[in-house]
Amino acid sequence: MRLAFVLMLMAAPACAESPLTADEFAKIVTGRAFAHSFPPDPPYATEEYLPNNRARWVTVDGTCMYGTYFQSDSYICFKYDNGDTPCWHYFADGPGLIARFSENGDDPSGDIMMRDAPPPLACAGPDVGA
After folding, report:
1. What is the pTM of this model?
2. CA 59 to CA 125: how far, in whole Å?
3. pLDDT tens, residue by residue, 6-56
4. 89-95, long-range: CB < 8 A, 24+ apart
5. What is the distance between the alpha carbons of residues 85 and 104, in angstroms, rounded to a whole number?
6. Higher pLDDT, 44 or 124
7. 27-37 burial by CB neighbour count: b if 16+ within 10 A, else e?
8. Rounded Cα gap, residues 38 and 23, in angstroms
9. Could you tell me which residues come within 8 angstroms of residue 86 by beta carbon, excluding any fewer than 6 positions away?
10. Residue 54, CB half-sphere, CA atoms under 13 Å: how many?
11. Contacts of 128 (CB under 8 A, 6+ apart)
12. Exposed / middle / buried, residue 89 (Cβ in 10 Å: 0-12, 13-18, 19+)
């Protein structure tokens, strides 16, 4: 009977990994920068995560956008200085993270791969030196 129970547990599908909370996310990302890409494409932007839940988003053309992030239900949402407030689920993924946009629900087909990038990030235009 005991062996049957163990075999049943081993055959059961693994539970889906829970998304990171904002506190867990902050512990992983603060002081680091991550390149964002849709595999197998090259990175299209990099985000640097600063103390106090602040972030700096830099596109490949050097355009910068600043924001803060916060917990909203099970999502981590970013409020950027341009007024956008996208929300995401983040999952630990070996050397980096996987980001899943809230509008995609549980569909992983649009997941974004986040991998370490070297800070500091350069910003073009009026944000130079920021």
Report:
1. 0.80
2. 13
3. 333 333 333 348 999 999 999 999 999 999 999 999 999 999 999 999 999
4. 89/19, 89/20, 90/19, 90/20, 90/25, 91/17, 91/19, 91/20, 92/17, 92/20, 92/28
5. 15
6. 44
7. eebeebbbbbb
8. 25
9. 77, 78, 101, 102
10. 7
11. none
12. buried
Write the DSSP assignment of the chain as a string of letters: -HHHHHHHHHHSPPPPPPPPPHHHHHHHHTT-EEEEE-TTSPP-EEEEEETTTEEEEEETT--EEEEEEEEETTEEEEEETTS---EEEEEEETTEEEEEEGGGTT-GGG-EEEEEEPSPPP--GGGTT-
Name the token pair of 19: 């998304």
So what's the pLDDT on residue 126?
A: 56
Structure tokens at 111: 């997941």
The two structure tokens encoding residue 59: 């596109």
Pair of tokens at residue 16: 């889906």
User: What tokens were used for 69?
Assistant: 């992030």
- For the record, the structure tokens of 33 come out as 């920068």
Q: Which residue is it, tokens 């603060």?
A: 30
